[in-house]
Structure formats: C-alpha cells, structure tokens
Amino acid sequence: MFEIIVGVDGSESSTRALHYAMEEAARHADAAVLVVHAHRPATPRNRYAPAYSHMPAGTLERVTAQQNEERAEQQAIARQQAERVVQASLQSVGGIPPDVVVKTVVVARDAARTLIDMSEHADLVVVGTRGKGGFRGLRVGSVSQKVIAHAHCTVVVVR
Question: What is the pLDDT of residue 89?
Fold first, then answer.
C-alpha cells in the first residue's frame, strides 16, 4: 500500500497540501492517506508560587490534583479543537477518491517530530508552507524545514 502522510493545521497551505495528497493517492491503485494534526500538549500555568514546604499538610496533594484536573480538561478541549481542524480540512477536499483509505491522527506532540517519526513507514510526506514576512510565499515554515531535513521518505511542500 502506498502511504501518504499529510500534516494539517487549518491553514490555507495545509488545505492545499491535503488536496495534493488526495490527488497523489488517486494515482495509485492501493493508497492510504494519513491526515495528521499535532498540537502542543496542554500545560496549565502554576498559579501557586509559595513554597509548598511551608503549606499545611495535604496542600501539595490538593494542588497537584487540581492541576492534573485542569490539565486533563485543557487536553480534552485541545483535542476537540484539533479534531475540528481535521474534519474541516477533510470537508474542504470535497470527497475522497475511490480506493483511497483515509485515516486521521491527532496527537498532543510537536508537529515536526510527529511527521518525521511517521515518515519512517511512509512513501511520501506532504506539508504546506506558511511564508511570513516580506518574502511571503518564498520562505518555508519551520515545521516544513524540519520535515524536509529529517524525513525518512520523499517530502513535497505545497505552496
């Protein structure tokens, strides 16, 4: 099976990358497209500045439990938002080509590292680019640069 990994983040360039990946998959008799969205893990701020050693017994445990609960809530919200990004990206394609298997992957992890690691078992990685600054459209984004430099397979950057 010809496996294509495409990174999506909701940007126009990642939408174009997804379109390209679907077109490329349609050219192969047996292809799979893994639509990947990686987001930063939720890390709540520590609002408890005093030294824990001077607090009453049990305070550290309560604070830790509260922080863990907040982190879990933030992770759930981040995952829901990420799932919406993936679904919106897939809807923008307008349809999945016949004989193309599409899988979605949402992870709370560095985007570049995720795509690079997944590239070990892929035939192609497709990413968009978000040029910023005065040379918009000419520069490659940081995730794209890292994937180009370290991927284990062919990489296509879609403008």
Answer: 85
